[in-house]
Specification:
The protein is an alpha+beta fold. It folds into 4 domains: 4-66, Arc Repressor Mutant, subunit A; 80-130; 143-225, SH3 type barrels (Roll); 243-321, 2-Layer Sandwich (Alpha-Beta Plaits). 41% of the residues lie in helices and 21% in strands. It is built from 12 helices and 11 strands. Strand 9 and strand 10 (276-282) form a beta hairpin. The longest helix has 22 residues, at 326-347. It is elongated, with a radius of gyration of 31 Å.
Length: 351
């Protein structure tokens, strides 16, 4: 299939040159396409016998022409709805702008567009005016590191990485059997078996400072089930322990909770006052903690106890910070009082 794609583009080029009615031949077409005349000759035979093109050689004009001027090279069969979906998908690519995927996918879209008949089109100005995709803020990824990780994943080779853990002074060296890559909220993660920790972990691709694919073959990739591994996750956090979580949501928040599938295990219990309780089974509490805190006073953790206490303590610390004036008041006090102290100190009479 990969070898057919360049040939199809070349056939499109030959077809358009013949359509111009200038009687091109194998030598002229080969020169323009920068290939051999024998390759062009094989393409001509393919057009005539496989694509049923009304192709004939004119010995007087020394070139090829179509005996039926209405002939058109078969293009990719695609409906207007299909093309519209592709156009919208192209706009959605903005969320991958900081990864090497972005330029490659744009190139693929351009190739698809080149193979379509002219009559099938969606005007880009109309799409731009009617549809927008607000991308999630993405992390910055080093293209060289991305390529190294991706190649090691495809070739099933052990990766040696320098991974920067947030809050630490320098990166840690790890050797990892790469299993899977996952995108979540603007970050790409490598899932693999950490040789040092002796367990499957996630590594943020943007936090990898250096990567090297080793000659050693990675172990366990064939047995790794990514769907099963991620089934109980909430966000990008996965652990070994299972937690039964129950969260109450106020009547004001309930409509927003009902309209989304937040987790495969979710169950919703409706209350008479319009509030509801969401039950989940997850393997890590950090993602749930962040989610609950994002709802402020509209949510309350019922179980487990450790999550309830954690969220309660975080909300208390936030309230105390605002009560004490927080950064804004403290900065104003510092900016006003310190200069006043200095000024008073300079003007005070000496004993």
């Amino acid at each position: 299939m990969l070898t057919f794609k360049p040939q199809y583009r070349r056939l499109q080029f030959i077809h358009k040159e013949i359509q111009k009615g200038q009687y091109p031949n194998c030598r002229t077409l080969a020169a323009e396409w920068e290939t051999s005349p024998k390759t062009i000759q094989r393409d001509m035979e393919y057009l005539k016998w496989e694509q049923k093109a009304p192709l004939e050689y004119d010995p007087i004009r020394h070139g090829y022409h179509y005996t039926d001027k209405t002939y058109d090279l078969p293009a990719i069969r695609i409906s207007e709805g299909d093309l519209f979906a592709l156009t919208i998908a192209e706009k959605a690519l903005a969320q991958y702008r900081n990864t090497p995927l972005y330029d490659r996918l744009l190139t693929i879209f351009a190739k698809i567009q080149e193979t379509l008949p002219e009559k099938v089109s969606v005007h880009p100005a109309w799409v731009d005016a009617k549809f927008s995709v607000m991308p999630t803020p993405t992390t910055r990824i080093n293209p060289a590191i991305w390529e190294t990780v991706a190649k090691a994943l495809r070739a099933n080779r052990v990766l040696r990485i320098q991974h920067q853990v947030p809050g630490t002074k320098g990166p840690l060296t790890r050797e990892v059997d790469p299993y899977h890559m996952m995108s979540f909220k603007g970050e790409w993660y490598l899932i693999g078996f950490d040789h040092y920790r002796r367990q499957v972990l996630m590594f943020g691709i943007s936090r990898i400072r250096d990567a090297e694919a080793l000659s050693e073959e990675a172990q366990g990739a064939a047995d790794f089930d990514a769907a099963a591994y991620l089934r109980s996750h909430f966000g990008a956090f996965v652990g070994e322990k299972q937690y039964n979580v129950k969260i109450w949501f106020s009547p004001d928040a309930a409509p927003f909770i009902r309209e989304r599938d937040w987790h495969p295990s979710q169950k919703i219990k409706e209350n008479k006052d319009g509030s509801l309780v969401v039950s989940l089974r997850v393997s890590h509490l950090l993602g749930i903690r962040q989610w609950v805190l994002s709802w402020g006073g509209e949510a309350e953790v019922l179980t487990p106890k450790e999550l309830r206490q954690d969220v309660k303590g975080e909300l208390r610390r936030a309230a105390e910070r605002y009560k004490a004036g927080g950064y804004v008041v403290n900065k104003l006090l510092k900016d006003c009082i310190e200069p006043a102290k200095t000024l008073l100190g300079q003007n005070m009479p000496k004993p």
